[in-house]
Amino acid sequence: MTLILGIDPGSRITGYGIVRDNGRRCEYIASGCIRTGTGELSERLNAVFSGIHEIISSYHPDLMSIEQVFMARNADSALKLGQARGAAIVAATQAGLAVSEYSATQIKSAIVGSGRAAKEQVQMMVMHLLQLTQKPQIDASDALAAALCHAHHRQTLIAHDLSSAKSRGGRLRLTVR
Amino acid sequence: MTLILGIDPGSRITGYGIVRDNGRRCEYIASGCIRTGTGELSERLNAVFSGIHEIISSYHPDLMSIEQVFMARNADSALKLGQARGAAIVAATQAGLAVSEYSATQIKSAIVGSGRAAKEQVQMMVMHLLQLTQKPQIDASDALAAALCHAHHRQTLIAHDLSSAKSRGGRLRLTVR
Protein backbone atom coordinates (compact mmCIF):
# COMPACT_ATOMS: atom_id res chain seq x y z
CA MET A 1 0.00 0.00 0.00
CA THR A 2 1.43 3.34 -1.03
CA LEU A 3 -0.16 6.71 -0.38
CA ILE A 4 0.61 9.09 -3.24
CA LEU A 5 0.22 12.87 -3.04
CA GLY A 6 -0.22 14.50 -6.42
CA ILE A 7 0.00 18.27 -6.73
CA ASP A 8 -0.66 20.84 -9.44
CA PRO A 9 0.97 24.09 -8.29
CA GLY A 10 -0.08 27.53 -9.49
CA SER A 11 0.46 31.10 -8.39
CA ARG A 12 -3.21 31.48 -7.29
CA ILE A 13 -4.47 27.91 -6.81
CA THR A 14 -2.48 24.77 -6.00
CA GLY A 15 -4.47 21.59 -6.48
CA TYR A 16 -3.75 18.46 -4.46
CA GLY A 17 -5.00 14.90 -4.58
CA ILE A 18 -4.23 11.79 -2.58
CA VAL A 19 -4.72 8.22 -3.78
CA ARG A 20 -3.96 4.88 -2.13
CA ASP A 21 -2.26 2.45 -4.49
CA ASN A 22 -2.58 -1.23 -3.51
CA GLY A 23 -0.34 -2.33 -6.42
CA ARG A 24 -3.23 -3.20 -8.74
CA ARG A 25 -5.72 -0.39 -8.39
CA CYS A 26 -6.08 3.01 -6.77
CA GLU A 27 -8.52 4.30 -4.21
CA TYR A 28 -9.49 7.95 -3.79
CA ILE A 29 -8.54 9.40 -0.41
CA ALA A 30 -8.81 13.18 -0.67
CA SER A 31 -8.41 16.17 -2.97
CA GLY A 32 -8.84 19.92 -2.92
CA CYS A 33 -7.25 23.29 -3.54
CA ILE A 34 -4.95 25.59 -1.66
CA ARG A 35 -5.95 29.16 -2.48
CA THR A 36 -3.09 31.59 -1.99
CA GLY A 37 -5.15 34.78 -1.75
CA THR A 38 -4.16 38.22 -2.94
CA GLY A 39 -1.51 39.16 -0.38
CA GLU A 40 2.19 39.81 -0.92
CA LEU A 41 4.31 37.28 -2.79
CA SER A 42 5.96 35.94 0.38
CA GLU A 43 2.55 35.38 2.02
CA ARG A 44 1.20 33.61 -1.06
CA LEU A 45 4.22 31.31 -1.32
CA ASN A 46 4.03 30.64 2.40
CA ALA A 47 0.39 29.61 1.95
CA VAL A 48 1.52 27.00 -0.62
CA PHE A 49 4.30 25.70 1.65
CA SER A 50 2.11 25.63 4.78
CA GLY A 51 -0.83 24.10 2.88
CA ILE A 52 1.27 21.22 1.53
CA HIS A 53 2.92 20.81 4.94
CA GLU A 54 -0.53 20.52 6.58
CA ILE A 55 -1.73 17.95 4.01
CA ILE A 56 1.42 15.86 4.58
CA SER A 57 0.94 16.08 8.37
CA SER A 58 -2.72 14.99 8.04
CA TYR A 59 -2.42 12.13 5.52
CA HIS A 60 1.24 11.03 5.78
CA PRO A 61 1.71 10.27 2.06
CA ASP A 62 4.75 8.19 1.07
CA LEU A 63 5.80 10.40 -1.82
CA MET A 64 4.80 13.29 -4.04
CA SER A 65 4.10 13.31 -7.78
CA ILE A 66 4.11 16.48 -9.86
CA GLU A 67 3.79 17.41 -13.51
CA GLN A 68 7.05 18.42 -15.14
CA VAL A 69 6.94 21.77 -16.95
CA PHE A 70 8.68 21.76 -20.32
CA MET A 71 7.27 24.76 -22.03
CA ALA A 72 5.73 27.55 -20.06
CA ARG A 73 3.49 30.03 -21.90
CA ASN A 74 5.64 33.10 -21.30
CA ALA A 75 8.44 34.32 -19.03
CA ASP A 76 6.13 36.12 -16.60
CA SER A 77 3.77 33.18 -15.99
CA ALA A 78 6.78 30.81 -15.91
CA LEU A 79 8.33 32.85 -13.07
CA LYS A 80 5.07 32.80 -11.07
CA LEU A 81 4.54 29.09 -11.70
CA GLY A 82 8.19 28.40 -10.79
CA GLN A 83 7.85 30.20 -7.47
CA ALA A 84 4.77 28.15 -6.50
CA ARG A 85 6.49 24.93 -7.66
CA GLY A 86 9.59 25.80 -5.62
CA ALA A 87 7.52 26.41 -2.48
CA ALA A 88 5.52 23.18 -2.99
CA ILE A 89 8.54 20.98 -3.74
CA VAL A 90 10.54 22.13 -0.71
CA ALA A 91 7.46 21.54 1.49
CA ALA A 92 7.63 17.89 0.38
CA THR A 93 11.41 17.44 0.61
CA GLN A 94 11.50 19.12 4.03
CA ALA A 95 8.95 16.52 5.18
CA GLY A 96 11.25 13.76 3.86
CA LEU A 97 9.14 12.88 0.80
CA ALA A 98 10.69 11.83 -2.50
CA VAL A 99 9.37 13.83 -5.47
CA SER A 100 8.66 12.23 -8.85
CA GLU A 101 8.16 14.36 -11.94
CA TYR A 102 6.15 13.26 -14.98
CA SER A 103 5.68 15.06 -18.27
CA ALA A 104 2.16 16.06 -19.39
CA THR A 105 2.40 13.39 -22.11
CA GLN A 106 3.29 10.68 -19.57
CA ILE A 107 0.35 11.70 -17.37
CA LYS A 108 -2.15 11.79 -20.25
CA SER A 109 -0.89 8.44 -21.57
CA ALA A 110 -1.17 6.83 -18.14
CA ILE A 111 -4.72 8.11 -17.54
CA VAL A 112 -6.36 8.17 -20.99
CA GLY A 113 -4.02 6.01 -23.06
CA SER A 114 -3.05 8.87 -25.38
CA GLY A 115 -0.47 11.58 -24.80
CA ARG A 116 -2.59 14.01 -26.79
CA ALA A 117 -5.80 13.69 -24.75
CA ALA A 118 -7.76 16.86 -23.93
CA LYS A 119 -7.88 18.21 -20.38
CA GLU A 120 -11.58 17.26 -20.11
CA GLN A 121 -10.88 13.66 -21.15
CA VAL A 122 -8.25 13.41 -18.39
CA GLN A 123 -10.77 14.78 -15.88
CA MET A 124 -13.45 12.25 -16.97
CA MET A 125 -11.00 9.35 -16.72
CA VAL A 126 -9.80 10.49 -13.28
CA MET A 127 -13.46 10.39 -12.14
CA HIS A 128 -13.95 6.96 -13.71
CA LEU A 129 -10.73 5.41 -12.34
CA LEU A 130 -11.38 6.69 -8.81
CA GLN A 131 -15.17 6.10 -8.97
CA LEU A 132 -15.93 9.71 -8.13
CA THR A 133 -19.57 10.79 -8.37
CA GLN A 134 -18.77 14.52 -8.36
CA LYS A 135 -16.46 16.31 -10.78
CA PRO A 136 -13.42 17.58 -8.87
CA GLN A 137 -12.20 21.15 -9.44
CA ILE A 138 -9.80 21.15 -12.44
CA ASP A 139 -6.64 21.80 -10.35
CA ALA A 140 -7.58 19.01 -7.92
CA SER A 141 -8.31 16.73 -10.89
CA ASP A 142 -4.88 17.50 -12.43
CA ALA A 143 -3.26 16.74 -9.07
CA LEU A 144 -5.12 13.40 -8.86
CA ALA A 145 -3.95 12.67 -12.44
CA ALA A 146 -0.31 13.24 -11.39
CA ALA A 147 -0.83 10.86 -8.44
CA LEU A 148 -2.49 8.23 -10.66
CA CYS A 149 0.36 8.53 -13.19
CA HIS A 150 2.87 7.68 -10.49
CA ALA A 151 0.73 4.69 -9.43
CA HIS A 152 0.53 3.53 -13.06
CA HIS A 153 4.30 3.89 -13.46
CA ARG A 154 4.85 1.94 -10.24
CA GLN A 155 2.39 -0.83 -11.21
CA THR A 156 4.06 -1.14 -14.63
CA LEU A 157 7.46 -1.49 -12.93
CA ILE A 158 6.07 -4.16 -10.60
CA ALA A 159 4.51 -6.06 -13.54
CA HIS A 160 7.81 -5.79 -15.42
CA ASP A 161 9.75 -7.09 -12.40
CA LEU A 162 7.32 -10.00 -12.07
CA SER A 163 7.50 -11.01 -15.74
CA SER A 164 11.29 -10.68 -15.97
CA ALA A 165 11.68 -12.70 -12.75
CA LYS A 166 9.43 -15.38 -14.26
CA SER A 167 11.28 -15.39 -17.58
CA ARG A 168 14.58 -15.79 -15.73
CA GLY A 169 12.96 -18.75 -13.98
CA GLY A 170 14.21 -17.32 -10.77
CA ARG A 171 12.53 -16.65 -7.52
CA LEU A 172 10.38 -13.56 -7.18
CA ARG A 173 12.28 -10.89 -5.35
CA LEU A 174 9.58 -8.30 -5.54
CA THR A 175 9.80 -5.42 -3.14
CA VAL A 176 6.79 -3.15 -3.14
CA ARG A 177 7.90 0.24 -1.91
CA MET B 1 20.61 48.07 14.76
CA THR B 2 19.05 45.91 12.07
CA LEU B 3 20.59 42.84 10.53
CA ILE B 4 19.59 42.54 6.88
CA LEU B 5 19.91 39.37 4.81
CA GLY B 6 20.10 40.04 1.08
CA ILE B 7 19.78 37.15 -1.34
CA ASP B 8 20.22 36.63 -5.07
CA PRO B 9 18.59 33.31 -5.96
CA GLY B 10 19.51 31.24 -8.99
CA SER B 11 18.97 27.68 -10.15
CA ARG B 12 22.68 26.81 -9.70
CA ILE B 13 24.04 29.44 -7.30
CA THR B 14 22.17 31.47 -4.70
CA GLY B 15 24.20 34.40 -3.37
CA TYR B 16 23.67 35.72 0.14
CA GLY B 17 24.99 38.72 2.04
CA ILE B 18 24.41 40.06 5.54
CA VAL B 19 24.90 43.67 6.61
CA ARG B 20 24.31 45.39 9.94
CA ASP B 21 22.53 48.72 9.56
CA ASN B 22 22.99 51.13 12.47
CA GLY B 23 20.61 53.68 10.94
CA ARG B 24 23.34 55.81 9.34
CA ARG B 25 25.79 53.38 7.83
CA CYS B 26 26.18 49.67 7.15
CA GLU B 27 28.75 47.18 8.31
CA TYR B 28 29.66 43.98 6.46
CA ILE B 29 28.89 40.82 8.41
CA ALA B 30 29.07 37.91 5.97
CA SER B 31 28.46 36.82 2.40
CA GLY B 32 28.81 33.75 0.24
CA CYS B 33 27.12 31.35 -2.14
CA ILE B 34 24.88 28.33 -1.81
CA ARG B 35 25.77 25.94 -4.61
CA THR B 36 22.90 23.62 -5.46
CA GLY B 37 24.89 20.92 -7.24
CA THR B 38 23.77 18.80 -10.16
CA GLY B 39 21.28 16.49 -8.48
CA GLU B 40 17.53 16.21 -9.04
CA LEU B 41 15.35 19.32 -8.96
CA SER B 42 13.92 18.52 -5.51
CA GLU B 43 17.44 18.08 -4.07
CA ARG B 44 18.64 21.35 -5.60
CA LEU B 45 15.65 23.31 -4.29
CA ASN B 46 16.08 21.68 -0.90
CA ALA B 47 19.71 22.86 -0.90
CA VAL B 48 18.47 26.46 -1.38
CA PHE B 49 15.86 26.12 1.39
CA SER B 50 18.25 24.40 3.82
CA GLY B 51 21.08 26.82 3.00
CA ILE B 52 18.96 29.90 3.71
CA HIS B 53 17.54 28.21 6.82
CA GLU B 54 21.09 27.56 8.07
CA ILE B 55 22.18 31.17 7.43
CA ILE B 56 19.12 32.47 9.32
CA SER B 57 19.84 30.09 12.23
CA SER B 58 23.49 31.24 12.38
CA TYR B 59 23.09 35.03 12.01
CA HIS B 60 19.48 35.70 13.10
CA PRO B 61 18.81 38.47 10.55
CA ASP B 62 15.75 40.68 11.15
CA LEU B 63 14.47 40.55 7.58
CA MET B 64 15.28 39.52 4.05
CA SER B 65 15.74 41.70 0.96
CA ILE B 66 15.53 40.33 -2.58
CA GLU B 67 15.60 41.71 -6.09
CA GLN B 68 12.21 41.77 -7.80
CA VAL B 69 12.13 40.12 -11.22
CA PHE B 70 10.21 42.08 -13.83
CA MET B 71 11.45 40.67 -17.05
CA ALA B 72 13.05 37.28 -17.19
CA ARG B 73 15.11 36.38 -20.25
CA ASN B 74 12.94 33.50 -21.42
CA ALA B 75 10.26 31.12 -20.12
CA ASP B 76 12.70 28.29 -19.36
CA SER B 77 15.13 30.36 -17.28
CA ALA B 78 12.17 32.17 -15.65
CA LEU B 79 10.77 28.84 -14.45
CA LYS B 80 14.15 27.77 -12.99
CA LEU B 81 14.72 31.16 -11.37
CA GLY B 82 11.16 31.12 -10.02
CA GLN B 83 11.66 27.71 -8.40
CA ALA B 84 14.82 28.87 -6.61
CA ARG B 85 13.11 32.14 -5.56
CA GLY B 86 10.12 30.18 -4.22
CA ALA B 87 12.37 27.90 -2.16
CA ALA B 88 14.40 30.86 -0.82
CA ILE B 89 11.38 33.02 0.04
CA VAL B 90 9.55 30.28 1.95
CA ALA B 91 12.76 29.54 3.89
CA ALA B 92 12.62 33.15 5.13
CA THR B 93 8.87 33.30 5.80
CA GLN B 94 8.96 29.94 7.60
CA ALA B 95 11.63 31.45 9.89
CA GLY B 96 9.31 34.41 10.58
CA LEU B 97 11.25 36.94 8.47
CA ALA B 98 9.52 39.69 6.50
CA VAL B 99 10.60 39.81 2.85
CA SER B 100 11.14 43.12 1.01
CA GLU B 101 11.41 43.20 -2.77
CA TYR B 102 13.23 45.92 -4.71
CA SER B 103 13.47 46.38 -8.46
CA ALA B 104 16.89 46.27 -10.16
CA THR B 105 16.53 50.03 -10.80
CA GLN B 106 15.86 50.73 -7.10
CA ILE B 107 18.93 48.67 -6.11
CA LYS B 108 21.23 50.33 -8.65
CA SER B 109 19.96 53.81 -7.68
CA ALA B 110 20.49 53.11 -3.98
CA ILE B 111 24.04 51.79 -4.47
CA VAL B 112 25.46 53.78 -7.41
CA GLY B 113 23.02 56.71 -7.66
CA SER B 114 21.86 55.73 -11.14
CA GLY B 115 19.25 53.12 -12.09
CA ARG B 116 21.23 52.38 -15.26
CA ALA B 117 24.54 51.50 -13.62
CA ALA B 118 26.48 48.49 -14.93
CA LYS B 119 26.82 45.30 -12.85
CA GLU B 120 30.55 46.00 -12.29
CA GLN B 121 29.84 49.53 -11.00
CA VAL B 122 27.40 48.06 -8.47
CA GLN B 123 30.03 45.54 -7.38
CA MET B 124 32.69 48.26 -6.96
CA MET B 125 30.32 50.43 -4.92
CA VAL B 126 29.31 47.47 -2.72
CA MET B 127 33.05 46.96 -1.97
CA HIS B 128 33.51 50.67 -1.27
CA LEU B 129 30.41 51.06 0.95
CA LEU B 130 31.27 47.99 3.02
CA GLN B 131 35.04 48.64 2.99
CA LEU B 132 35.78 45.23 1.51
CA THR B 133 39.37 44.56 0.45
CA GLN B 134 38.50 41.52 -1.66
CA LYS B 135 36.01 41.42 -4.51
CA PRO B 136 33.06 39.20 -3.52
CA GLN B 137 31.74 36.61 -5.97
CA ILE B 138 29.15 38.32 -8.25
CA ASP B 139 26.11 36.49 -6.74
CA ALA B 140 27.27 37.37 -3.21
CA SER B 141 27.85 40.98 -4.33
CA ASP B 142 24.32 41.18 -5.82
CA ALA B 143 22.94 39.79 -2.55
CA LEU B 144 24.87 42.43 -0.55
CA ALA B 145 23.50 45.09 -2.95
CA ALA B 146 19.92 43.94 -2.20
CA ALA B 147 20.66 44.16 1.55
CA LEU B 148 22.25 47.63 1.17
CA CYS B 149 19.24 48.80 -0.88
CA HIS B 150 16.91 47.87 1.98
CA ALA B 151 19.18 49.71 4.44
CA HIS B 152 19.20 52.79 2.16
CA HIS B 153 15.41 52.66 1.88
CA ARG B 154 15.10 52.37 5.66
CA GLN B 155 17.56 55.23 6.31
CA THR B 156 15.69 57.44 3.84
CA LEU B 157 12.43 56.69 5.64
CA ILE B 158 14.07 57.52 9.00
CA ALA B 159 15.51 60.80 7.63
CA HIS B 160 12.09 61.65 6.20
CA ASP B 161 10.41 60.93 9.55
CA LEU B 162 12.98 63.14 11.33
CA SER B 163 12.59 66.09 8.97
CA SER B 164 8.80 65.94 8.90
CA ALA B 165 8.72 65.71 12.71
CA LYS B 166 10.99 68.79 12.88
CA SER B 167 8.91 70.69 10.35
CA ARG B 168 5.77 69.94 12.35
CA GLY B 169 7.64 71.29 15.40
CA GLY B 170 6.52 68.21 17.20
CA ARG B 171 8.42 65.74 19.29
CA LEU B 172 10.50 63.08 17.59
CA ARG B 173 8.65 59.81 17.68
CA LEU B 174 11.26 57.87 15.84
CA THR B 175 11.17 54.15 16.16
CA VAL B 176 14.08 52.35 14.59
CA ARG B 177 12.92 48.90 13.69
From TrEMBL, chains A, B:
Keywords: Cytoplasm, DNA damage, DNA recombination, DNA repair, DNA-binding, Endonuclease, Hydrolase, Magnesium, Metal-binding, Nuclease. Pfam families: RuvC. The keyword Acetylation does not apply. Transmembrane segments: none annotated. The RuvA-RuvB-RuvC complex processes Holliday junction (HJ) DNA during genetic recombination and DNA repair. Endonuclease that resolves HJ intermediates. Cleaves cruciform DNA by making single-stranded nicks across the HJ at symmetrical positions within the homologous arms, yielding a 5'-phosphate and a 3'-hydroxyl group; requires a central core of homology in the junction. The consensus cleavage sequence is 5'-(A/T)TT(C/G)-3'. Cleavage occurs on the 3'-side of the TT dinucleotide at the point of strand exchange. HAMAP family: RuvC. This is Crossover junction endodeoxyribonuclease RuvC. It comes from Thiopseudomonas acetoxidans. The lineage of its organism: Bacteria, Pseudomonadati, Pseudomonadota, Gammaproteobacteria, Pseudomonadales. The gene is ruvC.
